[in-house]
């Protein structure tokens, strides 16, 4: 399996590269600047400069792109519009490291986490932008995309436990009522889905159990 990781220099991107290499996958890091991941194969290009030919060799593309600058939040939509455009009609599977804000908290699927009173106001613009990015994907009928949301608490310093489960569009909690996942467990689960795909053109979520 040939796998490319966009934004491989980021916290999640570096972990995806490391874990994919541990599974003996053929991994290429796609980065704008000097590669800081463990990948030895590197494509140094900005996401908007990627072409269909650039991504054609890959079975799987993991998009770990994220931006927090208030002036650039719309790139959560525009980058996905670009990627779905150049992957349209191909067999390449596109996995997006998504957000939790758009997960639903009610059985009727009408209220999203980002719209609840408890959701931190500081993260509202980011969550709104990422939610609009998911909407872009849902219009991409000719792309094999999978949007992968973490639990509400996504812990960069948490340990790898191997104790996780998959869910769908609804926020899911463990037996103690927590919605938590470490980066390490999220990436492990993501690689399991990549190696043994069960989803296509849908959002899945991962939470610790």
From TrEMBL:
GO terms for molecular function: oxidoreductase activity, acting on the CH-NH group of donors, NAD or NADP as acceptor. Signal peptide: none annotated. Residues 8-191 form the NAD(P)-binding domain. Gene3D superfamilies: NAD(P)-binding Rossmann-like Domain. It comes from the Bacteria. This is NAD(P)-dependent oxidoreductase. It comes from Leuconostoc holzapfelii.
């Amino acid at each position: 399996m040939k796998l490319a990781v966009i934004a491989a220099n980021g916290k999640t991107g570096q972990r995806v590269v490391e874990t994919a290499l541990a599974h003996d996958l053929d991994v290429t890091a796609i980065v704008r600047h000097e590669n800081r991941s463990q990948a030895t194969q590197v494509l140094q290009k900005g996401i908007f400069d990627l072409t269909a030919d650039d991504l054609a060799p890959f079975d799987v593309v993991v998009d770990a792109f994220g931006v927090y600058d208030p002036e650039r939040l719309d790139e959560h939509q525009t980058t996905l519009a670009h990627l779905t455009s150049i992957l349209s009609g191909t067999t390449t599977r596109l996995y997006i490291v998504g957000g939790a804000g758009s997960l639903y908290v009610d059985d009727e699927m009408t209220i999203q986490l980002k719209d609840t009173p408890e959701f931190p106001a500081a993260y509202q613009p980011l969550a709104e932008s990422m939610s609009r990015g998911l909407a872009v994907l849902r219009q991409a009928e000719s792309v094999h995309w999978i949007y992968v949301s973490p639990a509400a608490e996504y812990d960069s310093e948490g340990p790898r436990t191997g104790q996780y489960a998959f869910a769908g569009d609804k926020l899911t909690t463990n037996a103690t009522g927590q919605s938590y996942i470490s980066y390490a467990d999220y990436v492990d689960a993501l690689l399991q889905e990549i190696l043994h795909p069960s989803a296509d053109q849908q959002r899945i979520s991962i939470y610790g159990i």
